[in-house]
Design brief:
The structure is a homodimer of 513-residue chains.
Chain A: H1 19-22, H2 39-57, H3 72-76, H4 90-102, H5 124-136, H6 147-163, H7 184-203, E1 211-215, H8 239-251, E2 255-262, H9 273-282, E3 286-290, E4 315-317, H10 320-323, H11 375-409, E5 414-418, E6 424-429, H12 433-436, H13 439-454, E7 463-467, E8 470-476, H14 484-507
Parallel strand pairs in A: 1-2, 2-3, 3-4
Antiparallel strand pairs in A: 5-6, 6-8, 7-8
Helix pairs in contact in A: 5-11, 6-11, 8-9, 11-14, 13-14
Chain lengths: 513, 513
């Protein structure tokens, strides 16, 4: 069955063109206890789901972002779960609900025209790796609880660390080691707790109130208090500013605890790792590098220098699910100490088989006990595409972003606000003093531009950022399905909307109406 | 293709009987950038993966727990990821690796003879729901980031809350609300942070060092300091003991902050929620109920009384992935306040569409920003099986556990240590004073019994617990594939191993050799 060349996904909550999906909705026996995990039933329904996803992946010209209002789905669905499903084939009926009620209300992150936030790149190997993981469904919280799952996680974190050119001190092969957590918030939390325990062991737990954590105002959401950055340093954290803050705190009797430096903020600024680590080391604090988005770019030797100095960091985290084809819920690589997080109890006591061996129980590497077999997916991605395949992928997005950047630069009405380093372009309509008067008006104009761009039904979907008082549009290239034509077309839509907006302003005498 | 009636999965690292899997390994084109997410390629490989999982689910007589030693897989795999996969069809080669190297080293949680830890129950709807989630791959961290995903999460947490007979005050329909997090550790952490912020707002943040958290020594790992429980109360937390502890702390100038009560500990004790909440309320502290395992049983009216008094709790969490057919990474239901965890920044500012509406941005309900579309899976499970289907499932396991319990009770060499409430039986060989002398020897004997039971290649796989100084074997019935014959056979293996062990002891004059 070939995918429909085009499909009609209406966003007003009405049903989408149903013909294509109907093909995969065959008859099924009603589920009953004995068939909850029956192999034949699984195979039959599984093929339907695969066809359904393939159909979804084949969509091209639907709106990326739905025009729905809050409550649309809650009103459409019953207030209670069914007692017994009414339908003969409840699974097929459920797939119809997905098609008619759920898909039309999603923001389609896999769309080639999704340029918002950061990408959630997917791939066939990742999506099927996930399906395989869930089919096997083991819980490797200790080595014994599923030995191959723990060992595969050790193998792939080393594989990935090497592919990213990370120092061996962070890898198992160099005495460190990595783990796969759900999100970077969790990774930072783990590093923070470990740093705290290390410091309190040194200075006594009574001084917990004196500990100070540092980051720039561009750091990940998980951390809130911040040292300001400035446009003239491209919003990177200044080692001098950090040093001054740490000295002042130490003089006031406080204890510098933790620095979170970032490689690739939401505006893709890159903090100078080597210089910052030197400042941190002087105060005996913990240095963590958060490379959630841009860490993926380290697979390419041309980006390797951005992690210079990483051999001095205590921990490092990145997301394979943002840009390395390994869809959501994949990867971090912190070299954590078990001391801060370990548990030991009879219920999960080490196996006899493990006695005398230096094993890894990943439950001690995170805040969670239950965990998924995440390594299988990442292994499949690395195994099937290879490091060179990932490089090709990253480079193709960087190329497309560079092309978009060049188009922005060639239009004098626009400016690129921060230097593009990866595949994200932050840009805006220039403030025109003679027309707009102030930054505030420029911000308002760009806010309206984004609204217009996203209001184009077959157009791109972008989001904004506000840094140093400047409102900018963000074009984040990163969907696996994005091709050059999507980028070119996205820019054309931006130009058209801008022309229309500026035209209207001229009529109303330069005042944003 | 019918699943192989039987397969041979050898645990020594050698390849398993390959004929069946080979059938699903067809030729494939080499992956290249353009085909990373190609619909046809996805469909072709997807069908292979579904057949592979169906084959895995159809396995019956393989060892549940592998006899491997640490390092077995790391030694078998290359030290680096491939640069370019050597094979023409890398995906098929990877599936062969799964079959030959990874499956033989897993502990098979889905085996009908897996009675260890707590179950990780799966079902066709859940596993395929997960596959569907990963195929769609959206990131609903705000309402706008994928509206239908957020709304479906609101719908299913209400559905589930009602199915569990929870008070409406914890549901959206009653002014509360639920969210789906990765693990219960995360749920407890969120509740704890929220409780802390609420209390510090009241007493001032300088007193952070005075806050005290309470739980029993049977509480979940996420919490460590504990009030002792005793066998005569079936290891439930005593309200009198809690009250005394809180009073003593308050008298000493400390501030009672948080109680974590448990419905169904690892030994399935149940804390008296109503009485404990009354104690907590008197001190203005936060009460959280952790019903990670036994929360699933609340779908059955006959277990509903265990949550009596829950209308007074501040938050509640449970796992659908343990016993409600919704495999790993599914559900908690805390009614959290956003205050402690919320973030607000231009980058993820509310959509125009959401303005003026009281929307839920789930990023503010957890420690993580990135999150999966977890609601789809749980919705599929509830939609396809219905509340009655879940009841059938829970009751069938409770019946099997009761049968196991009766068999234990009928053998006077054994005793059931804690009263069985759900589908977990904690039992041991009785200490025989005239032969064994002490509890310590009884513990050693039971430890050896477990080793013998788990050493039976085609036998059951159980784990142990040690509570109040008593080492006990845990038979946790909960695999979706478990039938009565597996339970009967498991008991026969236990009896046989016990007879052999006791026989050896008689020969050596009552001393454990």
């Amino acid at each position: 069955m070939a995918p429909p060349a085009q499909m009609c996904l209406v966003n007003n909550g009405d049903s989408i063109n149903a013909a294509a999906v109907r093909m995969v909705m065959k008859e099924a026996a009603p589920p009953h206890s004995a068939s909850l995990l029956d192999a034949d039933e699984f195979r039959r329904l599984g093929h339907q789901v695969i066809d359904f996803i393939a159909y979804y992946a084949g969509m091209g010209s639907y709106p990326v972002h739905p025009s729905v209002t809050p409550g649309f789905l809650r009103r459409a669905l019953p207030a209670d779960a069914p007692s017994r499903p009414a339908e003969h084939d409840a699974f097929a009926a459920a797939l119809r609900d997905v098609r008619d009620h759920i898909l039309p209300g999603l923001t389609h992150w896999q769309s080639p025209r999704h340029f918002a936030h950061f990408p959630a790149s997917s791939s066939t190997a990742a999506a099927l790796g996930e399906a395989l993981t869930d089919g096997i469904n083991v819980v490797p919280f200790t080595w014994a609880a599923s030995p191959a799952a723990t060992e595969l996680e050790m193998v792939v974190t080393d594989w990935l660390g090497k592919a990213l050119h990370l120092p061996e001190s962070l890898l198992f092969c160099g005495g460190g080691g990595g783990t796969l957590l759900g999100t970077s918030c969790e990774a930072i939390l783990c590093a923070l707790v470990t740093a705290r325990e290390r410091k309190l062991a040194e200075i006594g737990s009574k001084r917990i109130g004196d500990l100070v954590v540092y980051c720039s105002d561009q750091t990940h959401f998980a951390l809130r208090k911040a040292i300001p950055t400035h446009r003239d340093r491209m919003f990177a954290l200044s080692p001098a500013d950090l040093g001054a803050a740490m000295r002042a705190d130490a003089d006031a009797g406080l204890v510098p605890l933790f620095l979170c430096a970032t490689i690739g903020t939401t505006q893709t600024s890159v903090d100078p790792v080597r210089e910052l680590c030197a400042v941190v080391a002087a105060h005996g604090a913990w240095s963590h590098v958060d490379a959630v988005y841009a860490g993926s770019a380290l697979v390419c030797p041309e980006f390797r220098h951005l992690a210079d100095g990483a051999e001095a960091v205590d921990s490092f985290s990145m997301n394979a699910h943002k840009w390395l084809l390994a869809n959501t819920d994949c990867l971090r690589q912190p070299a954590l100490l078990v001391a801060g997080l370990g548990t030991e109890q009879e219920y999960i006591l080490k196996d006899a088989a493990a006695e005398g061996h230096d094993i890894v129980d990943y439950k001690d590497w995170s805040v969670t006990l239950t965990r998924r077999f995440r390594a299988l997916k990442l292994w499949l991605v690395l195994r099937c595409y290879g490091v060179e395949g990932l490089r090709d992928h990253v480079r193709s997005h960087v190329r497309m972003a560079a092309a978009f950047e060049n188009m922005v630069r060639a239009d004098e009405r626009f400016e690129v606000v921060t230097v593009r380093q990866f595949s994200l372009v932050c840009f805006r309509l220039r403030p025109l003093p003679e027309k707009l008067g102030s930054e505030k008006e420029a911000n308002e104009l760009n806010r309206r531009l984004l609204e217009e761009v996203n209001g184009t039904r077959s157009g791109p979907y972008m989001r904004s950022a506000k840094v140093g008082g400047i409102y900018m549009l963000r074009c984040a290239v990163g969907s696996t399905l994005t091709e050059e034509r999507h980028v070119t077309e996205a820019w054309r839509v931006v130009q058209d909307r801008a022309a229309e907006l500026l035209g209207k302003m001229e009529i109303t005498n330069g005042v944003v109406a």
